[in-house]
Write a structure and sequence with these properties.
single chain, about 240 residues, alpha/beta, Rossmann fold
Length: about 240
Amino acid sequence: MPEPPVALVTGGTRGIGLSIAERLARAGKTVVVNYHANKEAAAEALETLRPLCSAVVAVQADVAVPAAAQAMIERVLSRFGRLDILVNNVGPFLVRSPIDTTVEEWRYLLDANLSSAFYCAKFALPAMRRQKSGNIINLGSLNCETVRGAPTTTAYNAAKAALVVLTKSLARTEGKYGIRVNMVNPGFIETYATTEEDREQMPPSIPLGRLGRPEEVAATVGYLVSDEAAYVTGAIINVHGGLWS
């Protein structure tokens, strides 16, 4: 029997990332989850995923650092010999006006949300090209394909808007190698970071009247990496309950 496809999910030990990892494991993929520093969350994620994928591995790396991202990809390739799915899920958030955003915060938000996806894709693509197949999914943010002013989330929104350009550009350059590149934009999703205030104040603004669930984002990722989406590349899919449509 052929070896199962190998999927790497950055930021894959909590929240949306863990739900994506679970979805891929249930679909028969060998899953690798990346984490930055939280070893406890990584251990808990492995406990969750092992019943679904006995070969699951957690890899520590700060993917906003080029050398660390490269070492992570090389470790996956060394262990499994291939990489079929890359989910760029890392995306720290910051609520701060432009004038109050420090230079360090600006650089961090762009590096973690945008550059990390570029680094991981850059180092994964040679292997995918050799395989003549592959899937890259970038996680964006609410309606980031529509450029608008963001008075309190400028750095984050700038990074995610640029990620749209990266996604579409990679879709155009890599299609001839059998590699598909798409983007999923979550709306207000209930995760470990959701507060009671969020649960009270957000739903009334959402046409569907509720927060989204991580597994609903994961289901979209699962579709995009499946054979059912074999003719889908360069797509930007919003999972936002109709918010700002």
